[in-house]
Every structure is written in structure tokens, then in C-alpha cells.
Amino acid sequence: MSDAALAGHLAKVAGDILLSVRGSGAFSGKALGKAGDETANQFLVHAIKSQRPDDGLLSEESKDTAERLAHKRVWIIDPVDGTREYGEARSDWAVHVGLSIDGVAEIGAVALPGCDGGVVLRTDNPAPVPAYDGPPRLVVSRTRPAKEAVAVSEALKGELVPMGSAGAKAMAIVRGEAEIYLHSGGQYEWDSCAPAAVAKAYGLHCSRIDGSPLRYNQTDTYLPDLLICKPEWADKVLSLVSELSD
Question: Which cofactors does it use (predicted)?
């Protein structure tokens, strides 16, 4: 099985497991989020170590070690991206299974188990991003919209679209539900590795908000900001962000 096929399969199965945990009725609220995180993480970690024993691994839900730094290939996973949304039985949460090769998010899958009967977007079967000719739509946090995103939206006379997890936001651009995902409020490698790999495969712009590349499998896993957008918006957004920082 190819790396992309493996990522897609594991993201789909982890999503099904999470729906089963939620559907069991045994947990609710924060306890549901904790149970989902632990159960999906256990599955993903064991599966990756079984299928790709020579690769490194970084998971939000497992203790990090320096061992992964010796590997060129490192799987970077987030078993439940958007734990709050998962616990609230919303649809805007995701499962991230990404593969960083030499520090670049190359391969991955993002599952959206709560959307349309379950959706998995993968790097190996991209489709054209739907066209849209209206004012740009910017996906932002439901609770803490990034000040840069708000300012850029105002400058572009755009529309803010509140949404949950980072994966759901990034895949909203892939699915043609928005044009720009600008985030500056703090994230880690597992929040963006798989989404960035998928977005890049679909022909979208992916970078830090200063235009520099997103780099993975670093000693410090803090990766606080990113821009994922349709290519035609990239230069304008990066220019506006630069003006805001001056």
C-alpha cells in the first residue's frame, strides 16, 4: 500500500472509530473528547508502527521524543483535530494523518467524519478546486478570530466564516467553501502537516504568514501561523499581512 493510500485508510478508520465512541453514549462533553483522543491515537500509533516501522512518528496525544529527529520520514498525526467540536457533536472536526519527508509535508489525508456521511481528502487523488467569483470568504476560529484575518477580510471586503478545527478550515478551501485560511494564533506541527500536504496537492498556496515555507519534524514542534489559500489570493494576502506588521 502506498503512503498516501495508507494515510487515507488510517484517517478513514480512525474517523469511524471516533464516531463509534461518540455513538456509544458512554461519554459526553470533555470526557467524550478525552476518550476519542485516546482511542483514535492508540489505533493510529499502533497501525503506523506496524505498517511503517522504520519511520518516525509525532502525535499530539503521545509523548514526544528526540528519536524522530533522526528520521527523514516522519508521520505527524492529530487523532482528533477539534476536540471541542467532536465533543459537542458538531461536524467541523477532523483526523490528520500526514507524512513529512525531509521537513516537508509531502503526503497525507484529512478525514472529515462528520461531513456528508464521511469525507477523506488525500494527496493522491486531488480534484479541481471549485471556482468562485464573489468576495473572498475567510475561515476563522469560532471563538478567537486572528486579528490579521479580520483586518485582511476588511481590506478585501470579504466575509468571515467561523469554523472549528484547523483541518476543517483548510479543507474548506480545498472543497471550495472558502478562499482563504489565515491563522496566527498559535498551532503545532500536527495541526497543519496533513492539511498542508493535501492543500498543496490540490494546487493551493501554503506558507507561513510571512511567505516562508512550512517546515516539519523540527526540535520545537510549535508552528504558530499559516496561510492556505487559492493561488490568486496569495500575493495580496501576504502583502496585507506585511503591511499590518510594519
Answer: Mg(2+)
